[in-house]
């Protein structure tokens, strides 16, 4: 079986990945970014964010070093993003769902201004 990351070994920069852009990347572009990282031998750590300030800190730091950012939302972090005063009933998780959606939308809106590609995921939110 051929190495799926081999196509990225000769690329000089993640900007050489077809379709790469500043802001949130998804689908094949996001997958290719992860394969590029693997081919180049470095990890792209995901940072759990709990509000706009932690999202901004991750984006600012990544932009400062010229690397992509990876922002994640956990069940608790997403709940905090929405506001701890909102209901988050067991089995419904209203605040966690709202916070994950709001956080992802926030990142989608501000990420392009930082001039780097960004991955966003909420798979740390439990499927309970």
Descriptive overview:
- The protein is elongated.
- Strand 2, helix 2 (52-65) and strand 3 form a beta-alpha-beta unit.
- The chain has a four-stranded parallel sheet with strand order 1-4-3-2.
- The relative contact order is 0.20.
- It has 128 residues and is α/β, with parallel strands linked by helices.
- The protein has helices at residues 27-40, 52-65, 75-82, 94-110; strands at residues 23-24, 47-48, 69-74, 117-124.
- The mean pLDDT is 93.
- Helices and strands, in order, run as EHEHEHHE
What share of residues is helical? 40-55%
Q: Low-confidence spans: pLDDT under 50, at least 5 residues?
A: none
Number of strands: 4
Report on the biggest sheet.
Answer: 4 strands, parallel
Distance between the termini: 37 Å
Mean pLDDT over all positions: 93
Radius of gyration: 16 Å
Count of helices? 4
The percent range for strand residues is 5-15%
- What is the SS-derived class? alpha/beta
Please list the strands of the largest sheet in the order they lie side by side.
Answer: 1-4-3-2
- Overall shape: it is elongated
Briefly characterize the structure.
This protein has helices at 27-40, 52-65, 75-82, 94-110; strands spanning 23-24, 47-48, 69-74, 117-124.
